[in-house]
Write a sequence for this structure.
């Protein structure tokens, strides 16, 4: 083979690979674009002020909104965060600090397993632990399930973000005669804060989009309720109920709710990008 | 012997006579089962600069890190005795020890989440001193001592890592000085810096030894000969030779030392 043919073959191979990569890229993007297209085109027409401010209309009546579901999702995510953020962040700090101890590596492994557990199973656990003893579905049980789902995500990001902080900062702190816990809390943690914040945002986005664990914990509620020991509405369960209902009006509202939920998650993701853009100003 | 003669003897350059600020006795350091230092007994004379030289991996940094017990922070263990002002530091609280024995690291490591001013007082603040007036005075005072004040006085509220590498290292020195240590350990403080910054650090070391006892680890033998009063040569975890810098560099007692300083190995 003359050098020039060899060169041409090489070029051709390169072009082929670039083409294949592009194709895969398109395949990745297509489902996302389709989902966005459908939810936006179907949902946007039914978005109006009433949708955010009104309660669901009685069965058989048109109109109404999902104000209770929006507030409900907020409450559920808040309960989940109250539980997931402190536990997750503190566990992450511990794992980063005791990198190699047996207890830490066991915990790390458990966290990974927890992260892989289907969310419906977490819902079952919350059902057994909270719904059955309380003898009723409640916001508390739903928030508990979401909290469990948030813990592993927050733990992992916290650990990784702390590990990214150069070891020299810890040494500098200790070298100045600053006690270990103060070094971790006031020197290491601030340097990792943006990344940890990011992890928290992502876990909130995930919790807000969960349906399965809420079905038999928070249950859903067609009425206004902010009581923690009562069943509570949520956007995802609202979508679930309305999408399978035999009324056109309900189906349309399910689209609208999907649209709102997607926009919400998208906003959180954008926030997350903005927060991570500048990690260390070097 | 009257007091004057004792004072003379203490001020004299004889390490055997001048009262050591710190000394080690049969110091052994381990990484797991690997013995990184073997039976080091070394005096660290007061208000002098002791340079530790030797090839990479000879244990000189490990030795330094035993002196403020940082060696244990990276998972190492220490056996033997290390005395500071007559007390065995192995029996004392490492946190308090590190306030007396400060450390400057190889790579400048100011805290990026703090301003230049906050960096200087970080040690004090996190050790519970909150008097704002005192802290403000401390900032200027120690930046001057680290001969950095003139260069940064208008940018005190900028992040600690916004200045040049040489300035960052002097900021780290200021931060170490602010805790008011007695001994300062320097682990190749100029090896990551350009020649001009290096010269500034060396001048600073010269200035600081009036008040502090300094131990400096260096790869640069010219640097050791320029700034130190005593030089210790380490090789394979052992202390080979120690003496007045001039003697070690001009008339080393052992062949190993001679080979190393004349560049035949290492």
């Amino acid at each position: 083979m003359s050098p020039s043919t060899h060169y041409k073959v090489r070029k051709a191979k390169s072009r082929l690979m670039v083409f294949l990569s592009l194709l895969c890229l398109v395949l990745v993007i297509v489902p996302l674009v389709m989902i966005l297209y459908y939810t936006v085109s179907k949902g946007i027409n039914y978005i109006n002020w009433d949708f955010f401010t009104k309660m669901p209309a009685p069965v058989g009546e048109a109109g109404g909104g999902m104000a209770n579901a929006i507030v409900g999702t907020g409450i559920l995510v808040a309960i989940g965060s109250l539980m997931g953020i402190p536990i997750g962040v503190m566990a992450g700090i511990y794992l980063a600090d005791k990198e190699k101890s047996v207890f830490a590596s066991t915990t790390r492994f458990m966290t990974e397993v927890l992260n892989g557990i289907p969310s419906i199973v977490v819902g079952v656990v919350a059902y057994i632990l909270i719904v059955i003893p309380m003898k009723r579905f409640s916001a508390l049980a739903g928030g508990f399930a979401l909290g469990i789902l948030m813990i592993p995500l927050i733990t992992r990001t916290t650990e990784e973000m702390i590990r990214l902080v150069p070891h020299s900062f810890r040494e500098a702190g200790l070298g100045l005669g600053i006690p270990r816990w103060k070094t971790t809390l006031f020197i290491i943690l601030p340097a990792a804060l943006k990344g940890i914040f990011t992890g928290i945002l992502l876990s909130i986005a995930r919790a807000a989009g969960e349906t399965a664990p809420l079905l038999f914990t928070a249950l859903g509620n067609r009425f206004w309720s902010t009581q923690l020991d009562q069943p509570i509405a949520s956007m995802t369960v609202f979508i679930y109920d309305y999408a399978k209902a035999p009324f056109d009006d309900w189906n349309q509202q399910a689209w609208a709710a999907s649209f709102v939920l997607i926009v919400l998650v998208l906003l959180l993701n954008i926030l997350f990008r903005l927060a991570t853009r500048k990690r260390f100003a070097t | 012997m009257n007091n004057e003669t004792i004072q003379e003897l203490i001020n004299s350059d004889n390490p055997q006579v001048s009262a050591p600020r710190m000394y080690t006795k049969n110091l052994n350091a381990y990484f797991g089962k690997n013995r990184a230092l073997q039976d080091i007994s070394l005096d660290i004379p007061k208000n002098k600069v002791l340079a530790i030289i030797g090839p990479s991996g000879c244990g000189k940094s490990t030795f330094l890190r035993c002196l403020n017990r940082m060696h244990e922070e990276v998972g190492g263990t220490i056996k033997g005795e290390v005395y500071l002002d007559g007390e065995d530091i192995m029996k004392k609280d490492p946190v308090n020890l590190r306030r007396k024995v400060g450390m400057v690291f190889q790579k400048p490591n100011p805290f990026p989440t703090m301003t230049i001013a906050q960096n200087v007082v970080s040690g004090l603040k996190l050790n519970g001193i909150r008097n704002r007036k005192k802290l403000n005075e401390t900032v200027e005072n120690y930046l001057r001592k680290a001969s950095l004040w003139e260069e940064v006085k208008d940018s005190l509220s900028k992040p600690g890592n916004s200045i040049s590498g040489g300035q960052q290292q002097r900021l780290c020195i200021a931060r170490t000085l602010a805790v008011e240590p007695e001994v300062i350990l320097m682990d190749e403080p100029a090896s990551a810096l350009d020649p001009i910054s290096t010269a500034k650090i060396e001048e600073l070391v010269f200035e600081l030894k009036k008040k502090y006892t300094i131990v400096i680890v260096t790869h640069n033998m010219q640097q050791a000969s320029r700034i130190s009063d005593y030089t210790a040569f380490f090789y394979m975890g052992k202390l080979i030779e120690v003496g007045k810098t001039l003697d070690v560099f001009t008339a080393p007692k052992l062949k190993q030392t001679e080979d190393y300083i004349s560049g035949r190995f290492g």
